[in-house]
């Protein structure tokens, strides 16, 4: 193994918590985790017509397809909060709000709203690549890069 001659670089692990907090990744990760288990929380039929959108100030926002579904889910709010907080105890969700799901492109059949991919800003990309280059494990570095691209809706 080659010796590291650059001793002024901080350990990646020492900066991860600050990076997570600064970029709100913890909230994004919690929303992602909830989305993967959404059917377990609300049931198969409602899961097809709704999805967790984001967490903001201890409030979970849920996208729904119609105002009828919004009204249907309102009486279930306390039960949903219990299930969600049991699943994500660290999220600290105290309220749920609903919003109409953004418009979907015509012909979309996946049931999820598509977000257009964009090109990465060269400065952002360079800063991220510099940070990611400190990860020694290639698979971890690739997974971190994939997460970053997905979060920012970037082209490969």
Q: Could you explain the architecture of this structure?
A:
The chain is an alpha+beta fold. The protein has two domains: 89 residues, DnaA, N-terminal domain (GMP Synthetase, Chain A, domain 3, 2-Layer Sandwich); 42 residues, no CATH class. It has eight helices and three strands. Strands 1-2-3 form a three-stranded mixed sheet. A hairpin with a 2-residue loop joins strand 1 and strand 2. The radius of gyration is 19 Å and the shape is elongated. It starts with 11 loop residues before the first helix and ends in a 5-residue tail after the last helix.
How far is the N terminus from the C terminus? 31 Å
Average pLDDT, rounded to a whole number, is 79
Assign the CATH architecture of the largest domain.
2-Layer Sandwich
What is the highest CATH level, the class of the largest domain? Alpha Beta
* Total separate domains: 2
CATH T-level topology of the largest domain: GMP Synthetase, Chain A, domain 3
SSE-based structural type:
alpha+beta
The largest beta-sheet arranges its strands as 1-2-3
The number of distinct β-strands equals 3
SSE arrangement:
Blueprint (H helix, E strand, L loop, with lengths): L11 H11 L2 H12 L1 H5 L1 H4 L2 E7 L2 E6 L2 H7 L3 H11 L7 E6 L21 H11 L5 H14 L5
Parallel strand pairs: 2-3
Antiparallel strand pairs: 1-2
What are the key terms here?
single chain, 156 residues, alpha+beta, GMP Synthetase, Chain A, domain 3, 3-stranded mixed β-sheet, 8 helices, 3 strands, elongated
Question: Care to give the gist of this entry?
Answer:
By secondary structure, the chain is α+β, with helices and mostly antiparallel strands. Helix content is 48%, strand content 12%. It has helices at 12-22, 25-36, 38-42, 44-47, 67-73, 77-87, 122-132, 138-151; strands at residues 50-56, 59-64, 95-100.
């Amino acid at each position: 193994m080659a010796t590291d001659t650059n001793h002024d670089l901080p350990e990646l692990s020492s900066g991860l918590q600050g990076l997570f907090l600064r970029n709100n990744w913890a909230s994004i990760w919690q929303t992602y985790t909830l989305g993967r288990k959404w059917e377990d929380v609300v049931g198969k039929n409602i899961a097809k017509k709704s999805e967790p959108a984001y967490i903001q100030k201890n409030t979970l926002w849920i996208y729904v397809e119609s105002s009828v579904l919004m009204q249907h889910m309102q009486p279930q709010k306390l039960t949903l909060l219990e299930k969600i907080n049991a699943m994500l105890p660290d999220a600290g969700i105290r309220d749920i709000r609903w919003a109409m799901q953004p418009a979907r492109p015509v012909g979309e059949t996946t049931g999820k709203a598509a977000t257009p991919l964009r090109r990465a800003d060269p400065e952002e990309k360079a800063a991220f690549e510099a940070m990611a280059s400190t990860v020694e494990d290639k698979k971890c570095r690739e997974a971190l890069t994939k997460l970053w691209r997905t979060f920012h809706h970037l082209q490969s």
